[in-house]
Design a protein that fits this description.
Blueprint lengths: L1 H15 L7 H13 L8 H25 L1 E6 L5 E4 L5 E4 L3 E6 L2 E8 L1 E5 L8 E4 L3 E5 L3 E7 L5 E8 L1 E6 L7 E4 L3 E4 L7 E3 L8 H4 L1 E8 H12 L1 E5 L5 E7 L3 H12 L3 E5 L1
Parallel strand pairs: 5-7
Antiparallel strand pairs: 1-4, 2-3, 3-6, 4-5, 6-9, 7-8, 8-11, 9-10, 10-13, 11-12, 13-14, 15-17, 16-18
């Protein structure tokens, strides 16, 4: 039976075969050529989204690496103020937990988060600019303190100890106030420009300069400055005296001893 089927198949092929009609070599070459052709790949919409996301990630990652490689971050992370000297020889003292940012190659345009005291090296061709999220301060060369608060109520204050400072709100772009030696201004959220406020004692920058300065200052004010700086309560046996002189901030005990000897008073210290 099987042999009969084979014979019938062979007879069928031989019956329909015509010479020259079937070229096995040519057919084989066509099969091989077809096998070498690349298979078309259909990209689905999900694959397209994945590719787009990958490209976006590469662009963002490249931009982040570029930005980080071109910025400089100065941070005072410990419990003491830290002095930094910028490439242009500007001195910046950062209070604890404050940060200063600038792009490498442009160290006269900085961003401040926190509190700092600046001694800006003068350059009339390239003003020095400090900004935070609400204010801009611009100078040529001077000494001043900037305090920014990022709590529930954001506040920026500028106190000038030497020279001239332009203090303005960053949203308005207006010139704002020009502050000179001994002047202080404050900018509150929503205000178009800073407002002048009572300057207070020169010793509010003692944390940065390391010096208390008194010039015929009433003893009550002297003790108030010291009490605020060292977080103590101080009172004197005679408050009608006045004091002139500079004192380093290293030791409260030494300062009190000198004051007692010079003014011939007794100072009582109470811890807060």
């Amino acid at each position: 039976m099987i042999k009969e089927r084979k014979d019938n198949s062979l007879d069928f092929v031989m019956h329909f075969y015509e010479e020259g009609r079937l070229d096995t070599r040519k057919a084989l070459r066509r099969v091989k050529q077809h096998a070498k052709r690349p298979v078309a790949h259909i990209i689905t919409w999900r694959q397209r989204i994945a590719i787009a996301a990958s490209l976006l990630l590469l662009l963002c990652g490249g931009g982040y690496l570029y930005w980080n490689s071109h910025r400089q971050v100065l941070l005072a992370a410990n419990e003491k103020a830290q002095l930094f000297i910028l490439p242009d020889n500007t001195h910046v003292t950062l209070s604890p937990h404050s940060t200063l940012l600038y792009n490498k190659g442009d160290d006269r345009t900085v961003t401040l988060d926190g509190k700092a005291y600046f001694e800006v090296n003068r350059n009339e061709q390239h003003p020095f600019t400090i900004s935070n999220d609400m204010a801009r301060i611009q100078v040529l060369g001077t000494k001043f303190q900037v305090r920014g608060s990022n709590g529930l109520q954001k506040v920026t204050e500028v106190f000038v100890t030497e020279g001239k400072v332009a203090f303005s709100a960053i949203e308005t772009g207006q010139q704002g106030l020009i502050l000179t030696h001994g002047m202080k201004a404050r900018l509150l959220p929503g205000e178009d420009h800073p407002q002048l406020i009572t300057a207070g004692s020169i010793n509010q920058v003692a944390w940065a300069t390391g010096l208390f300065h008194f010039n015929n200052t009433p003893l009550t004010e002297v003790l108030a400055d010291l009490a605020q700086f060292y977080h103590v309560k101080l009172r004197a046996s005679d408050t009608h005296k006045r004091l002139s002189g500079d004192f380093e901030t290293d030791s409260l005990e030494e300062i009190l001893t000198l004051i007692e000897q010079v003014l011939e008073v007794r100072i009582i210290r109470d811890e807060r």
